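INTERNAL TRANSFER SHEET
From: sequence group
To: structure group
Subject: Tectonic family member 1

Please process the attached sequence and return the structure record in the designated field. Keep the field labels unchanged so the import script can parse them.
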Amino acid sequence: MVTVGRSGQRGTFWMPSAGLTADCVDSSPAAFLKDQSSRCSRRVVLDQDCRSLPALSMNTYSDIQLFTGKQIDAAVVPMEVASVILQSTDDTQTELQISAGENLSPVLLRPNLCANVVLKVIYVIKYNPGGEIVNATVTLVLGFVSNRMLPLEQEFQITYVQEDGGDVAVRYSGNPGYVVGLPLVSGTKTADGIARSIDPRDTLSLLHSAEDQDCLQDPHQRSPVLFGLNSVSGCTLRQSSPILN
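Return from structure group:
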């Protein structure tokens, strides 16, 4: 896949992975339409690398723009941040509500403790039947890293989903098992068991909380239920005074 830099130069979309050793190799290209998952480790000196090493910062994995195809006049698709999850020192995870302009760069809290370090990166690339990229999202898990956790282990995943259902198999949020921050897959109970839709967008969902979300009026806006993340939602029930009396 081809990326575009700030000055318009073309580059390659890299997918870090382990090489001959467990050490991360950042110059490994991501193959189009090939789901990948990798783990690798980095040798880090916290008091020197916490703020300066690009591989620790979420911007390295989110500040990306992809060409929809290899044509010279191909459109550009920005990488959208689907969610950012903060993992505490006791491994509990919480989804962050990010506001515009918020800085989540790594920060050295103590000489032996660095916060907001990228621990896991999950890319989801959506493409159309013509083989062009139509959407790209990334989910990031940030956490705290101390000297006792070194060398730092990072995990990377990339999944491709076709825009239209067609003959595309249903994508789980992980294989095997679910991945924190990605949607749960749902189905309909039948006499023969549970029937799943071939539409990858058909996931377990909740009403999307919004000021204009009426409990009784269609269409209802919905948000997918993400594995490992607690959610609260609701809607507004509007009734006239005579009915209430």
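Handover comment: The mean pLDDT is 80. The chain has two domains: 2-164, 183-231.
Transfer complete.
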